[in-house]
Amino acid sequence: MTAPIPLYLEDLRIGMRFATAPYALDQQQIVAFARQFDPQPFHTDPDAAKASFFQGLVASGWHVAAVTMRLLVDTVPLAGGLIGAGGTCDWPRPARVGDTLRVEAEIVAIHPSQSRPDRGIITVKIDTLNQNNEAVQNLVAKMVVFRGGERKEL
Amino acid sequence: MTAPIPLYLEDLRIGMRFATAPYALDQQQIVAFARQFDPQPFHTDPDAAKASFFQGLVASGWHVAAVTMRLLVDTVPLAGGLIGAGGTCDWPRPARVGDTLRVEAEIVAIHPSQSRPDRGIITVKIDTLNQNNEAVQNLVAKMVVFRGGERKEL
To answer: Model ipTM?
Structure first.
């Protein structure tokens, strides 16, 4: 990255890429998230998980999404923050105990707003990979980005 | 619901609907989730949030997604559990401190697997609404569902 920080709409280019730090996923984290938000045996009970569809304890897909967001917040310096409007999300394989996750993100589209000149929508391809470079989540997200001329205090 | 419980692929019909219990979202929950997974001022700092794009503290979209999952797990009795393969997700407006969320879900497509006769993929339209019946999240999810003939022990 040689671009200025923070990044405004006019600083962004299609093809800009960001790579996050790694994130070590352990059993305690998987179970704690799942007990609160996705209390199913394949996320909360290592023994029951062995007999499940997944043949072992796996992270909730929403936990993977949350970890992905954490890694992005720590890495992608958009002015005004990372404000998601929505997107598509797929979990091609589960994240498991002991996995080390990291995220690679790339700006694939930039659309200045027609009605609101102070902002635009960018589309970002966000891949969450495990230690074998296998995707555990493929997210394509739309995010709101502001122009520097309307620098928001956030 | 007059269908048997748990529900296998052959029990499901397009148009089947599920409505969850309500979930009260408070500031402590919003801040706790965000500190861990989405540490941005509009999710973690009520004062800074007032001056932000959102003009007040709002829940991370991923927190809304996680709460939605919790409500679904407590309500939708799919045999083998709720196993998501992916989908599209939009956040048309933020969830705020004091909101009471609930989820309405409807099966909109059912596709038995061609290659694996023990299972199929269903598409479920999942709307997360606030106390004013405004959508805070629109999710269209694909889920794996099993036939009773291959009842999985989970």
So the answer is: 0.94
